[in-house]
Amino acid sequence: MTSNTSLWKHTKTWFHRWGSPAWFYRTSGLIIPWLWAGFFLLAVPGLFWGLFIAPADYLQGDSYRIIFIHVPSAWQSMLIFAVMAGFALIGMVWRIRVAETLAMCCAPIGAAFTVVTLISGSLWGKPTWGTFWQWDGRMTSELVLLFLYLGVIGLQQAIEEPRRAARAAGLLALVGVVNLPIIHYSVEWWTTLHQGTTVSLLGESSIAPSMLWPLLLMVGAAKFFFAANLLSRTRNTLLVQDREKNWVRETVWGVKQ
Amino acid sequence: MNKLLVIIGHDLRLAFRRRSEWFQPLWFLLLVVALFPLGIGPQPALLSQIAAGVIWIAALLSNMLSLESLFREDAQNGRLEQWLLLDASLPALAAGRTFAHWLVTGLPVILISPLLAAWMQLPQAAMDTLILSLLLGTPTLSLLGSLGAALTLGSRQGGMLLALLIAPLSVPVLVFATNAVSDAASGFIADTQLLLLGVILLFAITLIPFAIAAALRIHLQE
Amino acid sequence: MDQLLTADKVSYERFYRSVFGTASIHLKIGGCLLLTGANGAGKTTLIKLLAGVLRPTTGTVSCCDQHFVGHQLGLHQELTVQENLHWYLRLWGSDLGHREASQKIEAALARLESIALRSQRAGSLSAGQAKRAALARLFLVPRCLWLLDEPFVNLDQVSIDLLLHEIREHCAAGGGAVIASHALGLADLPRSQRLKLPIIRPKLQHQSVA
Question: What is the pTM of this model?
Answer without folding.
Answer: 0.91
